Amino acid sequence: MNPPDDSTLPDNRTTLRDGTSPRSLSASGVAPGTAIGDYEILAELGRGGMGVVYRARQRSLGREVALKVLSGPGLSPQARVRFEREARAASRLHHPAIVSIHEFRLGSDLSYYSMDLIEGRSLAEALGARKRPLEPEKAAALVAELAEATHYAHRNGIVHRDLKPANVLIGKDGWPQIADFGLARSRDEAGLTASGDVLGTPAYMSPEQARGEEVGPATDVYALGTILYECLSLETPFRGKTVADVLYKVAHEEPTGLGKLCPWLSRDLTTICGKAMRREPSGRYDTASALADDLGRFLQGEPIRARRIGAAERLWRWARKRKALAATAGMSALLICGLVAYHVASLSRQVRETRAAREDAEGKARELARALDAQRAQNLVYQAESMHREGYPIREILARLGEAESLHPDYAPIHRLRGVLAFETGDDDAALAHLRRALALDPRDPLIPYHLYRVYSQTSLRNSPEARQALQRILEIRPESAAGHYASARALSDEADACRENDPARAREIYRKALDELGLSLRADPFSSLAHELEGLVRFYLGEFDRAIASLDRAIEIEPGLVTAYYNRGLVLFARGEPARALADFERAEGMRPGPQDSKFLRARCMAMIGRVEEARSILADHLALHPEDAEGEYWLGAILEQPDPEAALRAAGRACELDPGNPRYLVNLALELGKAGRHEEAKKAIHEALSAAPRSAAARHALGYLAFLEGNLEEALSSYDEAIELDPGPFDYYNSRGVARLELGRLEEALADLDRAAELAPRDAQVRRNRGFVYQKLGRTREAAIDYDVAIELAPDSPDGYGKRGFLLSVTGDPAGARRDYDKAISIDARHAEARNNRGYLNYLERRFDQALADLDVAIESDPRRGSAWSNRGLVRLALGDPASAVLDFRKAVELAPGDSTYVFNLGLGELRAGRPEEAARAAERYLELAPEAADGWHLLGMVEEARGDRVRAAGAYRRAIELDPSRKDALEEKIRALEAG
What we know:
mainly alpha; Phosphorylase Kinase, domain 1; Transferase(Phosphotransferase), domain 1; three-stranded antiparallel sheet
């Protein structure tokens, strides 16, 4: 596609296409005239922590909008997540007092959304410009409108979580509208990422929000109260020198009463504000609509529903603010009681009661001191958590925690945060020790088992009883939360894993249930990296490779440090036939944190698949030197040696079975290696052992089919492949194998259907592409065959197989020079590549380069003694060189390897005839006609045999039948017939 002519765009305009990585979208912003998608930038309106807002013109509709853009340095995974949350949340809401979202586009490098352009300023700017507070009626009317809009958002399942004057836009007509849903979250979204996070603007947070607890509609009600407070006083309820100071005050202290700060205000209005800002969510208005209703009553002069706090609660608040004074007052009260007692009791009783009072007062003082220490420790932990979120150096965070621990050593959040910090710095043992202590101190905190499971999941303990216990504890504490549904899905996935090898059908059923639970978890918390990761793994086991990759990509986008997500994505890419990309993920994971043993083995397998065989062998050799009795290591050693050293691969497969007798997977692998070595009876024995151990093993059924295929029992092979696919329709290689068997049977359309399915499951598997290309070639669809061969070479440029297949296509389509180039390329990659040597040998035979042909075919046979075509082709060369006796030996070997191949039988008949053995030639000709009764070649050969045997009548009859089937032979054979009849 050509770029547009320069004349179609103004000279001063730059176009940023979706999906690019525009470095200009940084601190300098976007220049006016720049086009982003359908929008032309006019001017910058403002910028914040989550992007820049521009005035823009939507070209297709000719209207001006506000365009919020996230790009450049702001495009961290966390920023993209929050930006997406904002766009999706706001786009669901349509209310006069909420800024409307028109459309949004989320990309890896550039994200934006368009919204109503509000001509005016924010409430924060409006209040900042005032010298006096808003008139009470105006403030009440404004907050009532905001409360109604907030209630509408709540009814639609959205909690804003960051309501403040800066997020309220005031139009020129004075109408307020709520904007910036960057922290908005569904009401049921608590769980894996909500608890423990302090998100929002501290001065407008509710106490529970400042403490990192779960939030809900009551949080927004509190924020509306703070907005009303500021509108009426031009003061925020809490101030401090640092964010941590403000957070502590919000979490633990009472604000200065609005009535005390502004004594001229109506008591009803201060009561409404006070109720909205009650410390406990249950004490606030039940809904934002109830707040709006009370404000409306105030404006109408009607009695409000809220009531002032009573004397008891005022006394409690006073005591909380003045703990030392309250304790002194308590002791004074006790002393007065003692004096009164002096006048009504004996002196001895007075002494006893005075002593008791003193001891009681001292106990209360000690208890108060402990409480003050605990509160001080709590404050220090909140500060430490805030510092952790803000990226302070770990040593400074640990210093705060150390101070907190000296005051209150048994405060569980201290050890919880210590555990998180230890895990982040790679000290798994310390992380587990701290988190286990935290759990012992507070068994009801769901964050502790969650963080415990995170440590287990990223280490060798991922499948341990302790990991399962952590999941179970989450389920017990909060079964209906996002974390609870995740824990349930994890348990189901583990159950499916346990029966995947032996009963894949049941495993698939359980995996589907796990997906249902994950759907509930992600509906409650769409930004849970662990849930996305597990979804990817489950979809992988269900054979949904593309969706698995998408889920794992999402997990990594949300949490780039999630090591196991890289490992699992590598696993999917490996299964999908992309060893280079898989290896990159395995190496990335290994660089972040040593992974499971399987990661090492798969890394070696990928290396071998892309030609780095010696590196792969070295990894496995080092492992087995340290762990000589490890059956899994032997299993993978055999896998990487399968191509370069089949005998060593077979030895490794046998060793794995010796170390772990009865393991179905190892037995299946041994059977495959034995089958490739031609030891079919031993292979069948191993398969039957595997089936005895795992009667519903799809892998064993597949291997049984492969053995039948090697023996030429194609119908039997198909039957076994059918059973394997019925048991487990997920693996692409099952369809690939069945497709090849159907190809051998000449059922080309069915073969194509199987290979299409294999390519759908594994679009980047080069072998599948090569096999499908060959089917296309057989069907005469040479263009599609060439495309598949080209793709196979692109996918595996260092593999000789694609060049060998494409060379054969070029040979049969009349391009011998191109064919030779491809054969030469394949042989340059692998000098012993049997297919390329065989095909180049045949090409040399056709071009009468017999010595070169023999050299190639000798290597082909030495490399792959079971390749029947190489034996047959060498027989043809020897026949051309005048050595029919040697040729017959080669033809016989070809027929022995593939008794059902008519071409080999024909060549054998021709060789026997040239060797002067007409009886043997006759048997070969008759066998050929059994295999291909309508083939003119067979009747032509039979005529030659009968002629050699002296049976002129039968010879003439055979030649006539050959002419009927292939009239092009008429001229050559009619002369023979006349000679035979003339006698």
